[in-house]
Amino acid sequence: MYPPIRDSPVTIGPNDLDATILALLAERPAGRTIAPEEIARAVAADTDWRTHFAAVRRAAVKLALDGRLVIYRKGKPVDPGDFKGVYRLGLPHLD
């Protein structure tokens, strides 16, 4: 379960956030990725979208560990449990 997002009057449940991430990825052409900022902006409503970054990262890590998405750094897949810095999210390749 994700802790509440600080300084945000809007409560976003983990299922809502997961669904938003997967929906945004499904809209992209195959092989394309999305930035965490896009997800934060999508769920922000009337709040400051930057306050959602930590929740987006937690959701992305959980979905990556479940095999539902891939976390990329500098265009290469990274270990969801051990990455730093700027990252992007994509759907797993179906080979």
Q: Could you give the order of strands across the largest sheet?
A: 2-1-3
Helix content: 25-40%
Task: Give the overall form.
Answer: globular
CATH class: Mainly Alpha
Distance between the termini: 32 Å
**How many H/I helices?**
3
**Which fold name is given in CATH as the topology?**
Arc Repressor Mutant, subunit A
**How much of the sequence is in beta strands?**
5-15%
CATH architectural group: Orthogonal Bundle
Q: Overall pLDDT, averaged?
A: 86
Oligomeric category: single chain
SS-based structural class?
alpha+beta
Number of domains: 1
The CATH H-level homologous superfamily: Winged helix-like DNA-binding domain superfamily/Winged helix DNA-binding domain
The number of E-state strands comes to 3
Task: Give the helices and strands as they follow along the chain.
Answer: HHHEEE
What features would you describe in this structure?
It contains three helices and three strands, in the order αααβββ. With 95 residues, the protein is an alpha+beta fold. The protein has a single domain, classed as Orthogonal Bundle (Arc Repressor Mutant, subunit A). The radius of gyration is 13 Å and the shape is globular. The N and C termini lie far apart (32 Å).
